[in-house]
Write the structure tokens for this entry.
Amino acid sequence: MRYGKRVQTAARRVLKKESTDGTLEVEATTKGLGKLFEAALGVGASTLISGSAYQQLFTPAITDPMPSYTIQKGIPLVGGGAAQPQTMNGMVCSGFELSAGSDGAVSLKFPFMGRGVDTSTGWATPSYPAAYEQFDMTAATIKAGVGAVTVPGANTLATGGTVVANVLSVELTYDNGLDEGGWFIGGTGKRGRRPMLGIRTLTGKLTAEYDANTFRDAFLAQTNFALVLHFEHNSIISGAIKPGLQITIPVIRLDGELPKAVSDGVVTQEIGFTMLDGQVATHPIYVAIVTAETAI
């Protein structure tokens, strides 16, 4: 504070710490998702199924640290010209979000947090996968219930469970619980290590028409459910194998609401759920992608 001054002085403004964060939002496609799910969960492997069809299987990393990536985006100047590169270093994915409705494509979000931004690195022209398609809800199945579910293997999808035919939309958010520390004295204001894992969480919501008491009773009794979301494309990779994206959660508990009476229209339920560890399956969540891509 200085006499007669009403604005902070420039000499007293200093850099304390530097970081960067942002979210990649994509539509789910038959190619190109592997690297993003590997970043979100931490562990991924690609295994041949048959012919030219491969399965990429992703599970949560058990030990720190999560994998780190470099992300570059190019922003054109007004009026045209070369893309102006912004290169984000040390980017670690904090999880993913999925949303899908009966009338649209499957949308995914991947939030990242990183060490800083570099504007001196040159622009690297991106390459894109050829012949890929979008997943939508026309060939999707949702399995939820107490029916036994066998989790996916290296080149096999999850099996079992009961198909639910009354779901209008599904949303879920998976979070790695990354910590906010790592800025050390003498570190030039930048994070000195990758974020460490915390308690992983997954919460979500199913919106469904009220045509049975299955969800209501499971909510009241706090019954363990399995949830399998399977999105498939009608194209063929090899033989009868089609591209697919499958998310398997061996145990969820419902924390939604009871059905509500309405004055007009069909009664629907918003059924919230939380992922838990049932202490039977090796992992609390599995993401499997069936694709023509030979590697992640």
